[in-house]
Amino acid sequence: MTSKNYQPKPEHKFTFGLWTVGNRGRDPFGDATRPTLPPIKIVKELSRLGAYGVNLHDNDLVPIDATRQERDATVREFKKALADHGMKVPMATTNLFYDPVFKDGAFTSNDPRVRLYALQKTMRSMDLGAELGAHIYVFWGGREGAEVDAAKDPREALKWNREALNFLCEYSIDQGYDYKFALEAKPNEPRGDIYLPTTGAMLGFIATLDHPEMVGVNPEVGHEQMSGLNFYHVVAQAIEAGKLFHIDLNDQKGPRFDQDLRFGSESIKNLFFLVKLLEESYDGPRHFDAHSYRSEDEAGVWDFAAGCMRNYLILKDKARQFNEDAEIQSLLSEIRSTEADDGVPIGCYSRERADEIKSRSMDRTELAKKQLPYERLDQLTVDILLGVR
User: Fold this and answer.
1) Is residue 1 situated within a structural domain?
2) Is 60 assigned a catalytic role?
3) Residue 3 lies in a domain
4) Which of 291, 345, 355, 315 has the alpha carbon at shortest distance from 25?
């Protein structure tokens, strides 16, 4: 890819949710500013722009009160549009947050009947996703939390959540769906506090499940930034653990409400290192969970979608330039270099290795003298990102 070729192609694996480009501009203080975009039109336009696929909640496609006949007709029409335009559905999920029945949670509701309904709705949604070809299933517990700590025991809530996920893992196995489950964290909004608020918390929870090998994470840029965390580090931890099953790309202006801004519109340096990491270590879909500004009309929605993909490809090209820059690579080599005898990894424990390390003569004053030219390295990175290098 040359530095001027930022045309998205299906091999880039860019995806959007029906709910992302389909966002109508409604917010807590104002009604919709755009008309509804039919799913068929979304498929057609995203294909035209060079996207790989679309993802969906169950009710993004099938209304919650649709009859079986209406559901089947809608799915047939949608599958035809996917085939006509060469689009995939890599990921599916369930809307367990919008309907009033989930006002106190879905899998963590105090009411066992609500928990059972959430389980039923999710199994039906998994059926839909499998019919459309999805192999990744995301769980975002948007209402799994509390405003009043006296109202719910979080220990019980975690048990209920675990019970539901264990059940659904078994359902996927029994149906032969071959799903990978990806858990998505968020610290707050729409609940005052959401259980398992960060990707790190999700990774700890996964280890307690009956089928941890089936379950990974779906970190989102804005959700981690709402906690003041470095998203690049969050994703690196997920990759190192072998648990990055899916990713939601957008942007955010600091630890505010969830803004879902166009990818690359704000956090340029952090997202540069994220793109570099993904290109080096991740082969899954690059999913944009964002939406156009409320001020835009439909044309602006497609400008937004094109901008997300273009910004990713620009940062990908910058990562190539970073990796090929002789001065940067020389600095990195200098920073990471050690004396031959001291560059041995800690390694696995043995009594002999512990005794050998304890007996070493190590001069901390001399170790502290090693130069770390981080200022120069960071400025060279900024020069690349600003296009002056």
Assistant:
1) no
2) yes
3) no
4) 291
Domain count, the chain: 2
Q: Which residue has the tokens 């050998």?
A: 356
Give mean pLDDT, residues 341-346: 71
Residue ranges making up the domain that contains 358: 326-385
Residue 98: CATH number of its domain = 3.20.20.150
246 is catalytic: no
Identified catalytic residue from 58, 60, 104, 260? 60
59 is written with which tokens? 């009710």
248-249, strands of its sheet edge to edge: 215-217, 180-184, 136-140, 91-93, 53-57, 14-17, 286-288, 248-249
pLDDT digits (tens, 9 = 90+) for 45-78: 999 999 999 999 999 999 999 999 999 999 999 9
- As a residue count, the chain comes to 389
360 Ramachandran zone, left/alpha/beta (phi>0; psi -120 to 50): beta
Asked if 22 and 42 count as a contact pair (C-beta separation under 8 A), the reply is: yes
Among the listed residues 12, 57, 223, 246, the single catalytic one is 57
pLDDT digits (tens, 9 = 90+) for 295-310: 999 999 999 999 999 9
CA-based nearest residue to 183, from 224, 228, 243: 243
- The winner for highest mean pLDDT among 1-5, 180-184, 337-341 is 180-184
